[in-house]
Amino acid sequence: MILNGGMQNRLPQNANFTFDFIEGESLLLRLDLDGIACSSGSACSSGSLTASHVLMAMGLEEVAAHGSIRFSLGKNNTKAEIDLVVGKLVEIVKSLRAMSPLTPR
Question: By C-alpha distance, which of 71, 55, 68, 85 is closest to 25?
Fold first, then answer.
Protein backbone atom coordinates (compact mmCIF):
# COMPACT_ATOMS: atom_id res chain seq x y z
CA MET A 1 0.00 0.00 0.00
CA ILE A 2 1.30 3.41 -0.96
CA LEU A 3 -0.03 6.73 0.34
CA ASN A 4 -0.46 9.04 -2.64
CA GLY A 5 0.61 12.63 -2.18
CA GLY A 6 3.09 14.21 0.14
CA MET A 7 2.97 14.32 3.90
CA GLN A 8 2.80 18.14 3.79
CA ASN A 9 0.20 20.35 2.10
CA ARG A 10 -2.62 17.83 2.21
CA LEU A 11 -6.16 17.78 3.52
CA PRO A 12 -6.23 16.03 6.91
CA GLN A 13 -9.51 14.23 6.23
CA ASN A 14 -8.49 12.78 2.87
CA ALA A 15 -6.26 9.80 2.11
CA ASN A 16 -5.64 8.14 -1.25
CA PHE A 17 -3.81 4.82 -1.39
CA THR A 18 -2.50 2.65 -4.21
CA PHE A 19 -2.66 -1.11 -3.86
CA ASP A 20 -0.33 -2.90 -6.26
CA PHE A 21 -1.60 -5.83 -8.33
CA ILE A 22 -5.33 -5.17 -7.86
CA GLU A 23 -7.94 -2.93 -9.42
CA GLY A 24 -9.31 -0.14 -7.25
CA GLU A 25 -12.83 -0.88 -8.52
CA SER A 26 -12.62 -4.48 -7.22
CA LEU A 27 -11.44 -3.24 -3.86
CA LEU A 28 -14.13 -0.58 -3.83
CA LEU A 29 -16.89 -3.12 -4.52
CA ARG A 30 -15.68 -5.53 -1.84
CA LEU A 31 -15.47 -2.72 0.75
CA ASP A 32 -18.95 -1.58 -0.24
CA LEU A 33 -20.30 -5.09 0.42
CA ASP A 34 -18.91 -4.71 3.95
CA GLY A 35 -20.64 -1.34 4.38
CA ILE A 36 -17.47 0.72 3.96
CA ALA A 37 -17.78 3.81 1.78
CA CYS A 38 -14.81 5.01 -0.23
CA SER A 39 -14.13 6.04 -3.80
CA SER A 40 -11.85 5.24 -6.68
CA GLY A 41 -10.55 8.07 -8.80
CA SER A 42 -10.76 11.71 -7.88
CA ALA A 43 -13.81 13.39 -6.39
CA CYS A 44 -14.36 15.34 -9.60
CA SER A 45 -14.49 12.16 -11.72
CA SER A 46 -16.60 9.88 -9.51
CA GLY A 47 -18.39 7.25 -11.54
CA SER A 48 -15.77 7.28 -14.29
CA LEU A 49 -13.71 4.18 -15.08
CA THR A 50 -10.83 6.25 -16.45
CA ALA A 51 -7.71 6.72 -14.37
CA SER A 52 -7.82 9.75 -12.10
CA HIS A 53 -6.37 12.76 -13.89
CA VAL A 54 -5.30 14.08 -10.48
CA LEU A 55 -3.24 10.97 -9.72
CA MET A 56 -1.83 10.97 -13.25
CA ALA A 57 -0.81 14.63 -12.84
CA MET A 58 0.94 13.66 -9.60
CA GLY A 59 3.10 11.30 -11.64
CA LEU A 60 1.45 7.94 -11.00
CA GLU A 61 1.47 5.39 -13.81
CA GLU A 62 -1.98 4.54 -15.18
CA VAL A 63 -1.90 1.04 -13.67
CA ALA A 64 -1.14 2.49 -10.21
CA ALA A 65 -3.89 5.09 -10.59
CA HIS A 66 -6.36 2.31 -11.40
CA GLY A 67 -5.28 0.49 -8.23
CA SER A 68 -6.05 3.47 -5.99
CA ILE A 69 -8.90 4.28 -3.65
CA ARG A 70 -9.72 7.39 -1.64
CA PHE A 71 -11.02 7.58 1.90
CA SER A 72 -12.61 10.70 3.34
CA LEU A 73 -13.03 10.97 7.09
CA GLY A 74 -15.35 13.16 9.07
CA LYS A 75 -15.37 14.47 12.62
CA ASN A 76 -17.70 11.67 13.68
CA ASN A 77 -15.47 8.81 12.52
CA THR A 78 -14.02 6.81 15.40
CA LYS A 79 -10.76 4.93 15.92
CA ALA A 80 -12.81 1.71 16.07
CA GLU A 81 -14.23 2.44 12.60
CA ILE A 82 -10.76 3.10 11.21
CA ASP A 83 -9.46 -0.12 12.79
CA LEU A 84 -12.36 -2.01 11.19
CA VAL A 85 -11.55 -0.56 7.76
CA VAL A 86 -7.86 -1.43 8.10
CA GLY A 87 -8.73 -5.00 9.09
CA LYS A 88 -11.11 -5.38 6.15
CA LEU A 89 -8.53 -3.86 3.80
CA VAL A 90 -5.91 -6.41 4.83
CA GLU A 91 -8.38 -9.28 4.32
CA ILE A 92 -9.73 -8.03 0.98
CA VAL A 93 -6.36 -7.05 -0.51
CA LYS A 94 -4.96 -10.47 0.37
CA SER A 95 -7.95 -12.16 -1.27
CA LEU A 96 -7.84 -10.03 -4.43
CA ARG A 97 -4.08 -10.44 -4.85
CA ALA A 98 -4.44 -14.23 -4.51
CA MET A 99 -6.71 -14.30 -7.56
CA SER A 100 -5.02 -11.56 -9.59
CA PRO A 101 -2.98 -12.59 -12.63
CA LEU A 102 -0.86 -9.49 -11.98
CA THR A 103 0.46 -10.70 -8.62
CA PRO A 104 4.04 -11.98 -8.87
CA ARG A 105 4.25 -15.68 -8.07
Answer: 68
